[in-house]
Write a structure and sequence with these properties.
single chain; 153 residues; alpha/beta; Collagenase (Catalytic Domain); four-stranded mixed β-sheet; 5 helices; 45% helix; 16% strand; globular
Length: 153
């Protein structure tokens, strides 16, 4: 379990879960897609850093919860690296309140969401979105959390 996952914390935020929590969420997502061989880097950053990345790579000059950066390695390099997931504790905390979810539930969802993106899932079209959301719901249930898309009033 947790082979090929690296966690780097570049944030002084106190709402960062333990590495074991992060590793478990990514592992369960990898297992769900049959990709336990996938190497993934997880980086926790502050709001300013993720805003800069979001602006540079997506043209959105605002902080965001999670970004996924697929590895772009030449075909001749033999590597299991699929990419990096970058997360922002401040945004995740704010969204947990906004969606009336526990902070741990929101963290798990963003880790699963980012992992699924790195493993090839997208939500650009309705059919892809339904497939990805169904997979997220399945994984979140396995992790012990409710449907991440059900907003509780």
């Amino acid at each position: 379990m947790s082979d090929n996952i690296t966690v780097t914390i570049d944030s002084e935020d106190e709402d960062v879960p333990e590495s074991s929590f992060i590793l478990k969420a990514v592992d369960v997502a990898r297992r769900a897609l049959g990709r336990m061989d996938a190497e993934i880097n997880v980086q926790i950053v502050d709001a300013q850093t993720i805003q800069s990345l979001n602006n540079q790579y997506r043209g959105k000059n605002m902080p965001t919860n999670v970004l996924s950066f697929p590895a772009e390695l030449p075909a001749w390099i033999d590597s299991r690296l699929v990419g990096d997931i970058v997360l922002c504790p401040a945004v995740i905390r704010a969204e947990s309140r906004q969606f009336n979810k526990s902070v741990n539930s929101r963290w798990a969802h963003m880790l699963v969401h980012g992992t699924l993106h790195l493993l090839g899932m997208t939500h650009d079209e309705e059919q892809q979105q339904q497939k990805m959301e169904t997979m997220e719901q399945k994984i979140m249930n396995e992790l012990g959390y409710d449907d991440p898309y059900q907003v509780i009033a």
